Amino acid sequence: xxxxxxxxxxxxxxxxxxxxxxxxxxxxxxxxxxxxxxxxxxxxxxxxxxxxxxxxxxxxxxxxxxxxxxxxxxxxxxxxxxxxxxxxxxxxxxxxxxxxxxxxxxxxxxxxxxxxxxxxxxxxxxxxxxxxxxxxxxxxxxxxxxxxxxxxxxxxxxxxxxxxxxxxxxxxxxxxxxxxxxxxxxxxxxxxxxxxxxxxxxxxxxxxxxxxxxxxxxxxxxxxxxxxxxxxxxxxxxxxxxxxxxxxxxxxxxxxxxxxxxxxxxxxxxxxxxxxxxxxxxxxxxxxxxxxxxxxxxxxxxxxxxxxxxxxxxxxxxxxxxxxxxxxxxxxxxxxxxxxxxxxxxxxxxxxxxxxxxxxxxxxxxxxxxxxxxxxxxxxxxxxxxxxxxxxxxxxxxxxxxxxxxxxxxxxxxxxxxxxxxxxxxxxxxxxxxxxxxxxxxxxxxxxxxxxxxxxxxxxxxxxxxxxxxxxxxxxxxxxxxxxxxxxxxxxxxxxxxxxxxxxxxxxxxxxxxxxxxxxxxxxxxxxxxxxxxxxxxxxxxxxxxxxxxxxxxxxxxxxxxxxxxxxxxxxxxxxxxxxxxxxxxxxxxxxxxxx
Length: 596
Hints:
Number of strands: 8
Radius of gyration: 68 Å
Shape: rod-shaped
């Protein structure tokens, strides 16, 4: 897979993760709002249910049946609203319908109870209660008017048993009540009116008890008992409905959350896998190419190539890197050839200066020798002429002998000087061409180099001072030393000369703790501060238009740091001269003494 495609897929998965997260958050928020609304509607239904199930006691105190209708209407509205919210939960809808059936049954029974209560009478002046109360009062008034204490007591006992039965709902009180009524009838058989009043009373009581029994004498009997069971069933169904709704809502929220987590897990897993593969591919490729570049840099081996394979952008980058390395290798080859050519040119330029000075130095003694030889030849010719004329005298021979002796001495000394110059030049040239480890006197060698530049130094009135131990012998590369000193002198001559100021060069050598400290300084033009950081770089020069190549100091730096394994430092202030410090920590040396 292309890295671009992988990155696009990874970004798409990131966006998808965010979308899923926001969608799940929205769904959970909507579910929470929906749940809160259902809970509120369920609470409203429970309140309405409580009011409905309390009607069987409220109607006794409130004969107005309109309130009953209002309560049932409130319940119905709450039920409809809740039912609309439970369109996707069939079990909850089924429980709600069952609850509604129980409520309707409760309502139907309640209306029967209300009808019976209406027939019985909501107070003592209405319905059967008024009739029963009228019969009781008529009987009690009649008993009081008879002036018969026994009959009056018997009537009081009958009322007492009546009240005991209505209070305790115990059949034995009713049986006792009937027995007392029969006794009262037997006691006053001769009074038809008392019998009639007793019959009216008993008939009214029986009708009243019959309706009360149908209605329910207590909460466990009759229609009231039936409604009590229905009420209990309603409460249980309401609890079951509430539990089912809560369970359904919790399950829906859990399923929503679980689905979201699964989707997020799948998407994030895919993203992690793709990111891991992408990261692994990029990391491994980066490490390989970094290792390749580090190896090329460490070994300076541009033959090495990247072996990264594949069909993605990293492989393309690897191929481009290989092409770049090949191009750099080709450029370095060309640059090396050009640099070698320029180095040779720089060497030749330095050698030209050296040869020019050497030639001038050689011309002077050779000129003296030629002049002396010419003079002696002329004197000898004159002597031959005098001898031929016969005018040769002793004084002529003495003059010739003296002049010949002086001329030969002069020729001998100047020819010796020429031989010395040729020997020194030959040693320098041979050491520069065939540089091997040899033992040499450092002072003599540096003197020889300065001697080869004597013409140029004299031409510009340059003075120099050598503060070097005269008995110090080094075992090193004498050609490298010669080349370094020569290039430093040449550098001072090219860049250090200042009009109306005598250039002075000083070379100081010391041995400190076994390390050679070499200082080459002049009081010339110096180097600008911005050039100090790059003065040892190849091809950096301020005299390019005057024949400078910018390789002199670069060659010096390479010879000191690579050939001699030393360190080179440069200090300079523009207009105040320049100082080169060379430190050679590992060099073989010894002191030479004449007595050894």
